[in-house]
Every structure is written in structure tokens, then in C-alpha cells.
Amino acid sequence: MTATENIDAPTVEPQIVAPQDALDEGEVAADYLEELLDIADLDGDIDIEIRGGRTYISILTDEDDDSLNSLIGDKGEVLDSLQELTRLAVLTATGERSRLILDIAGYRTDRAGQLKKLAEEAIESARSTGEKVHLDPMSAYERKLVHDVIADAGLHSESEGESTRRHIVISVLDN
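^ thats the sequence. predicted structure below, dont judge the formating
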């Protein structure tokens, strides 16, 4: 009997793990952002958190230190761009698209509170007048936060418009 005829030999499955599978998107993102902070000569601590299967990266600094504000920009525009660049860095390193969320100096956390308040005021307006309420344009992530608040309140919302003019319209559900 030859080795190829040995039917009692166990089958060996290849155990090759692609290098990109071993990379953690949070670690790749943190390394990318750490390099950026070094280049810009900025100080900040990077925190990685996984919530609901999504990676959240926060760059934190002392409360009285506003040195990271340049990475946030007007209405978070620089932060949004930096988040996209970080996602591209993860894609390049892992070959996998990333849905990570980047927060700098608590901007997104603070903005989420502002958006919740805005949504609650719009909900009250829609309920009291019965009219549709149009909110100002906002990013896809911000619209998602507002849609969630509105849905939890039992009202209907949808996004209208295109590109930078995309906004939420809130209406009372017909019963």
C-alpha cells in the first residue's frame, strides 16, 4: 500500500490565515491616528471601543486643552474627513471596508446630545402642529442618530435632498 492509498490517515485541512485577517481595524486606525498626531505635533490619548459590532475610536485630551480643535473643524467637517481617511487606511491595510466612528475631544458625543435635543424639539413641533418639520442638512451619521430618536418617539422620518443638502423631514404617523 502506498501513502496515497492509506484511507485511515486523517485529512489535513490547510490552516493558512491571511495576514489581513489578523489585523484588527481598531489597531490599524489607532496606529494611523497616532502617526497623524505625531506629524501634527499634537497630544492626545487614543481609546478604542467596540459597541454593537462597530469600532469607535476616540482621541482624548485634557478638558482645558483645545489643541485638538483644529482636527474637528467647523461643524465637524475636518473630523468627518479625518474619519474617512482613517477608514481608507484600514481598507488599505486589511482589504476590508470599515464603518468605524472617530470622535475627537468628545465632539461627536456632545453633538449627539445636541441632536437629541433638536430631534425632541422637532417631535414636539410635529405633534403640536400636525405639520411636517424639516431639519437642517447634516451628515449621514448625524441623520441616523436623529432618525433613531424620532422612531423611538413613534413618529415617521425620512431623508430628503441630495449630497450636502440632505436633511430629515419629520411627520406624525397616520393611524
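The chain has a mean pLDDT of 86.
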